[in-house]
Amino acid sequence: MKSMAARRSLQLFGVLLLFVPVLSGCWDRLEIDDRAVVLGVSIDEAENEEAARKEENEVSHVRGSLPPPKEGMVKVGVQIALPGQIPLGPGEAGGSAGSSPNRTVWVIHVVGHSINDAFMNLQQQVSSKLFFGHLRIIVISEEVAKKDMSNINDFFRRNAEVRRMAWMMVSKGKAFALMNAAPRLERIPTLYLMSTLDNAIKMGKFPKDYLGQYWSNSSKKGQEGFLPYVDIKEQDNVEIQGLAYFCGERLVGVTKPMEISGFLGLRGINPAGYRAVVLLDKDDLTTAVMTNVTHRHSKIDLSIKDGKPYFKIKVELEANLAEKMGHGISLEDPASIAMIERKQEEGSVQFYKNIIAKTQSKSSDIFGFGEMVRAKKPGYWHQYVGSKEKWQEMYKQTTFDIEVAVRIRRIGMKAI
Amino acid sequence: MLQTAIKGGDRMKLIKGYRRTKQQKQPKKLPANHTLAEFEGKKLSGSLQELEGIIDSTVGKSADLAIRKLHVFGRFPAVMYSFSHMVQQAVVNEDILKPFMHAPMHLQGRSIELAQLPDILLYETLYHGEVQLQGGIDLLIRAILGGDTVVAVEGMKEAFIIGTRSVEKRSIEQPATEQVIRGPREGFIESLGTNLALIRYRLQSTELRIDSREMGSRSKSKIAICYMDGITDPEVLKELDRRLSEVEIDGILDSGYLEQFIEDNKWSPFPQVQYTERPDKVAANLLEGRVAILVDGSPLALVIPTVFGQFYQTVEDYTERFLLMSAIRLARLVALIFSLVFPSLYVAIISFNPELIPTEFAVAVAGGRAGVPFPAVIEVLIMEVSMEVLREATIRLPQQVGGALSIVGVLVIGQAAVAAGFASPITVVIIALTTIGSFATPAYNAALALRLLRFPLIIMAGIFGLYGIMVGLIVIANHVLSLKSFGVPYLSPLVPGDKEGMKDLLIRAPIKWMKNRPAFLHPQDNIKLHVEDQAPSPSTGETSPEKR
Amino acid sequence: MDNTQTRQITVLQTAAILVSTIIGVGVLSLPLFAARAAESAAPIITLIGSVIAFFGLALVTWLGIRFPDHTIIEYSEQIIGKWLGRLGSVFIIAFFAVLTSLTAREFGEVVVTAVLKTTPVEVTVIVMLMLAAISARKSLTTFAYIHNFYFPLLLVPCLMIAILSLNNAEIINLQPIIWSPANHVFVGVLTIAALFQGSFILTLIIPSMKQPKKAMKASLYGILIAGGLYIVIVAASVSVFGSEEIKKLLWPTLELAKATNLPANILERLDAAFLAVWVTAVFTTLLSSYFLTAYAMKQLFRLREHRVFSFILFPFIFFMAMVPQNVTQLYGIIEMVGRYGLIITIAYPALLLLLAMIRKKRGQM
């Protein structure tokens, strides 16, 4: 019996041995230091079509065989981490990174007919294999976004390495400038960009809008996608300038930074982080106070009125008083607090209405009102809407009624 | 002359017999002690001269054989044999020579016939506990070899075998490999008798049975099989008996020899028999329904059947508070898993899936690895192998140097390897964690198994990344799942599930909760603990702390 | 020493075998099938699919209880005659061989697309099949142990990803919970029910169960857990992505793992880790269908050992796995084979049961 077991083991071993040559390849082994870790990608229009075509080499296609797409060719910039420049662990290097900016990453750009074409051109120039597993930031210039995003979305969705938790953003002006920016707070510029947005979520200044969410939103029949709209300032710092909202795969408009809070308030997203100036007396500037909204709550009721969806939105804001700009009012009096509340309510209703109207005019339902119709009134949806395009039309005719309730709870450490 | 002739003939016959048995494929017997086997069944004739000749031709050639001639009560010629270094001289002088040569007062003057002599000596004069009368020559020679003293009297058909064996042995010390902070400090020693005493002293029960047998055709090592009658599954005993009876080897010098004969699967890297040098552990295992095997000359007892869980459990788990020890046991389990998969996980993440780790860290790791010329697999393999070398060297080194070298070795080599661009700092951290992790496993042989299995896993990780690790782990797990130790599945009580055993697997439940013996051992008597639902009384009968 | 009584497998073990057999590579694309068929009603049709699957399994269980000492290969000959029964058995064997090869290929494709991009798909398929072939040589008891052991490894990652993704879930994506007339619900339900086909392995288990009478309990538990897990996964992915986005993803469950990160950024994305853990789930599924094929062949040819077949089958299964030319074709074949397979795993047992009742055949207990 023992010898049988031994023979069996030997047989098994023999069979396994047969497979050794098959298994001996390390096809996918690629050391982390042999990868060109792409941290950020920027996508611009190629400025000069002719120059771009010259610049582009024959990598993925023979010159002239592929006509330039009607949106124009793209210029793709990448930020690649330079291994060795970023020291392991915390330590003294934080300061030195500040003094010699731009050394931790390598920023290059190429042109191409499509995103993948551009990356192929880039790969031709970079020795290590491009690796998108740590791609955190995709910046798209306003011009490109206005034309068509479908090629960009398709490429990144198809690539298994790209994470859904990356940020995609629309830049005012050239996107490549953001790749080149070297903010001082982080060793790696793109990580600074990323943390700007991540912290904005934590501070209640921006909704959660990772790449995956943008994709999901723009796929939905009753909703449109939106992206952060950013701009670069003198000190290489980055400002969130609003929401870039889409209609289908095209950028149709941009909000003001303040209007992000309108979006957040309508959706009732917490934590709340925006502050608002409330002027009690239009003529007396000393009566201005600033309130700090701490908690938002919204309730949206949907009904069908005259064959069109009608939304009744009730927003509740809890706020603290943050600043008094003059001595025009005294907070000892509860009535004055009530007055501040009233004033802010009035202002907010108008504010919210404006935002909705703005998106309505572009038929870009970034709030997902259409999804509510689909979810709550499936019968109506199937009869009258049914598709994304129809909802885009319908959204323009949708009516809203907004009610805001502001509650000021605290006034800080000062008594008056 | 005559004897030598017989001897020669016998030998011929024996060799022939041996050949024949070989041809017939009967269980072959090693003709170990030619001259001893010859006298199998041969009886003492009563002639001292003949005996002298026989002794002379067998053991007489050894210089340490002491032959002492004497006259019993001054009348009957006798001869005494013993290996002088194996007996206690004082006992021989006082308890043997004196009563043999000097007739006691009440016998003086009585005439003693030869026929009466054995009875008189046995019942009236010899004051020694271990005396027997034997007629078989082979038995006598074996007794001499075992350290007993043989006294033969002219004309008597039987000779006295007197137990005088006294071999130098070390004192009972703290077990070196299984030290505990809280628990008994006694460890087994080489002497079987002492070891059995240590067990019996802990289990003063009529149910403790000790079967003894001799194994090894040349070494004639004594083996004791201990079990609790009425608890242990008789099937296990039967199976053990069968496996032991198949062993044909000339010498069993340590229980490790025996282990390899009785284990189920010798191709497996996993130990299927547990060894221990703690009598308390053996006692606890006996109470659970296991069987212990002790070998004379080995301080390590074997315990069967064994399941994997035993290898990360210690005595202290049961002597300390259950909450703390459960946590520590979990930590040990984590260390076990660490030591198995950590390096391969590192290889897989660095070479295949760097997207899994945080970006900052990934970029930094890439920086740390930037100067290293080798792929991560090779780097880890080199470091692992050198770690194994270092560890092995530390065991062999004299104790005074060992401690210093291990620390210096690890620190200096690690630091130098990083400085030389030979390994990345993170690799060093990984290797260090792995090594420490493998030391946290209480059982050396189990830790060894996992230590070795780490290497194929690293290679699999180098080929297929995380996917390869999983495939490797599945192969290992499937192997472990198909293992059995004496009919008990190796991963019991986890698979197949056993409620009672689960209480003592990952965590150690309070002893009060473990009312029954683990069912996977098929104990005859299932109940371990009789608890009334009252406050615990200090004198609850059978609440002997269970240890493994 | 082998104190293996022939009837050793408990009810819980049987349930574990069923669950780990059912849950496999199908989970990765399950939300896609469900969302395609019914959009936001995907969880409901998953439920309906599970109920249908349970009905099919119940038929097999009843048959098994009726003939507690035999498998379907054996009692089909008793019920419908030697040659018809053998024909049925040949179909069963062929079907499960195809199922094995498709499972291996599907997972091979997932691995090659998502993780090991330059590794030939043949290699990943061979590795998975080897794993199954070697383990399929073991005894039925060990087979039960293997399933029993991996069972928690299936539940934990699924539930973990579902729980972690709650963070991004939006209830509105799951509404309305009832499908609209425009959806092709029926086909979808069949596709989902087909994902449960591995549970047919029960027919092999019953003759080794300690109490075959309790087999129904085991199959109920098995379907409850597996179906529950399916529903959880479908609900989680639909609530996170929305049904429209799911329709754009080939393996939504994998994408869900990608969108999830462990708290405190220990692992930033779980897709590769999930896929690695999922190797065990696929392995158990593969093992079951491989084992079923080999064991059924053993019984068909009246042999004592099923071991021989494990390596004989290997090349056939491998070549069958290599037949589909691309992923799209592969999924077409998988859906088709799955749906037609329901004839073998549901209709055929139903027929047998009916005939057994009419002809009053039953095995002795």
From TrEMBL, chain A:
Gene3D superfamilies: Nutrient germinant receptor protein C, domain 3 (3.30.300.210). InterPro entries: GerAC_N, Spore_GerAC-like, Spore_GerAC-like_C, Spore_GerAC_C_sf. Its main location: membrane. It is found in: Membrane. Residues 241-412 form the Spore germination GerAC-like C-terminal domain. Pfam families: Spore_GerAC, Spore_GerAC_N. Residues 28-232 form the Spore germination protein N-terminal domain. One of its GO terms (cellular component) is membrane. This is Ger(X)C family spore germination protein. It comes from Paenibacillus pinisoli.
Automatic annotation (TrEMBL), chain C:
The chain crosses the membrane at residues 12-35, 41-63, 83-104, 110-133, 145-165, 185-206, 218-241, 272-296, 308-327, 339-358. Keywords: Germination, Membrane, Transmembrane, Transmembrane helix, Transport. GO terms for biological process: spore germination. The keyword Transmembrane helix applies. It is found in: Membrane. Its main location: membrane. It is a multi-pass membrane protein. GO terms for cellular component: membrane. InterPro entries: Spore_GerAB (IPR004761). Belongs to the amino acid-polyamine-organocation (APC) superfamily. Spore germination protein (SGP) (TC 2.A.3.9) family. This is Spore gernimation protein. It comes from Paenibacillus pinisoli.
